[in-house]
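FORM 12-B: Structure-to-Sequence Request
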């Protein structure tokens, strides 16, 4: 909608007629009022914003509780700036679960805006992929009602295969926008966390200290790391086979989370060896050589239960023939 001399025009400059648009759904009236005021506080395409209270009848008996109108001389909104201090860590996936929608809702809102408060993260509004606009109108950043916010949406890990089965939720945006330096720092921190998780897993499973695990990785070099990667990937592939056979729902999402924990934190799922062996029996041996299969089995065994003496066991990276190929040799 647009203004001219205090009147709402029937059409905009492109010929589109004025119409109502649902911005989002809030759990409290106060949150909805704050967003509605933000949409008409500054100059923009929204001439009026209403706060509507819906009941379990999916809106057939809705009540307009509050109305806000954009003034004819509303100021232009300034570009938000990042608040001082570091950006807080993203919420855990358990903190961004979907609400229970009223029965009969066939197209529930799938994206949410999570805001940072003095007590931590909380979900402000559920929307249909309008979280960026909501954050912009609210002025998230320095001087705004919230210093930091994040957008979370449904996770479709198989969308490249044109499979839109949802498996939990994923981070889709940060507000204010991250700078190049901040994105680089986030990537470096994620890599450091994965390396720390590998050291911890290797130490716990092999009965070593963190220092001994680090020395083992250093001595084994790239060949040993590749063996561990193959073991992890073999288990992960088996989990993917289990996941794809399940219908959309909590059980499939739980397997998705198990894959995330394995890849990001090196946390083993239950019966890791059994499901990896089953995957190798039914898939790899049908298309690969027996040497390849044996290598994968050896990799899984070392990843799950590192041997006490890798030199005596002939583990890759510790064999005599591996030494000349090491970068530090």
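FORM 12-B RESPONSE
SEQUENCE OUT:
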């Amino acid at each position: 909608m647009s203004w001219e001399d205090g009147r709402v025009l029937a059409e905009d400059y492109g010929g589109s007629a004025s119409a109502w648009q649902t911005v989002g759904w809030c759990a409290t009236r106060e949150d909805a009022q704050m967003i509605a005021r933000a949409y008409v506080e500054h100059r923009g395409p929204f001439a009026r914003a209403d706060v509507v209270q819906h009941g379990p009848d999916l809106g057939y008996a809705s009540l307009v509780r509050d109305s806000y109108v954009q003034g004819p001389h509303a100021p232009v909104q300034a570009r938000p700036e990042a608040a001082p201090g570091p950006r807080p860590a993203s919420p855990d996936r358990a903190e961004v679960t979907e609400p229970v929608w009223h029965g009969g809702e066939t197209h529930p809102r799938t994206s949410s805006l999570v805001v940072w408060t003095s007590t931590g993260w909380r979900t402000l509004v559920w929307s249909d992929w309008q979280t960026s606009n909501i954050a912009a109108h609210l002025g998230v950043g320095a001087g705004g009602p919230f210093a930091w916010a994040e957008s979370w949406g449904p996770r479709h890990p198989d969308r490249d295969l044109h499979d839109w089965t949802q498996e939990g939720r994923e981070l889709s945006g940060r507000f204010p926008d991250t700078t190049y330096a901040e994105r680089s720092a986030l990537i470096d921190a994620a890599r450091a966390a994965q390396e720390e998780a590998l050291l911890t897993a290797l130490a716990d499973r092999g009965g070593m200290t963190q220092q001994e695990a680090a020395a083992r990785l250093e001595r084994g070099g790239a060949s040993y790391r590749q063996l561990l990667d193959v073991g992890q990937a073999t288990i992960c592939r088996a989990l993917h086979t289990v996941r794809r056979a399940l219908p959309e729902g909590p059980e499939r999402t739980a397997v998705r989370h198990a894959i995330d924990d394995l890849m990001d934190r090196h946390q083993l799922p239950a019966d890791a060896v059994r499901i990896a062996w089953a995957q190798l029996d039914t898939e790899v041996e049908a298309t690969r050589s027996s040497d390849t299969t044996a290598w994968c089995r050896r990799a899984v065994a070392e990843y799950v239960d590192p041997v006490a003496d890798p030199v005596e066991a002939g583990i890759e990276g510790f064999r005599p023939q591996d030494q000349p190929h090491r970068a530090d040799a």
